[in-house]
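From the pipeline queue, job 12 of 40. The input is one protein chain; the requested action is below.

Action: predict structure.
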Amino acid sequence: MTNSTTAAIPGRDAAGTGRHPAGLPVLFFTEMWERFSYYGMRALLVLYLVGSLDYARADALALYGTYTGLVYLTPIFGGWLADRYLGYRKAILIGGIVLAAGHFAMAFP
């Protein structure tokens, strides 16, 4: 078999070794912690806003809706920024820092 034939087989890379791409562990762990953060935040955001910051329930739910919408909208801009200027490593590092800073800020009223 030639490399072009092997590369067409599902689960094989261009060299035909069947190994995962080098960036896959970074992608996996980044996505895992981002999902952990997102679903944890979904569960606690309205409770935090109402209980700790004295938001009205309707205002807290409106902010929750905005947060949820931005979770799906901002990756378009972030992906463009990473592809155009930062590269995936810097983008992941900056995103992780922003994510951790947001959670850290919630630790204090």
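Job complete. Helices lie at 3-7, 24-51, 57-86, 88-105.
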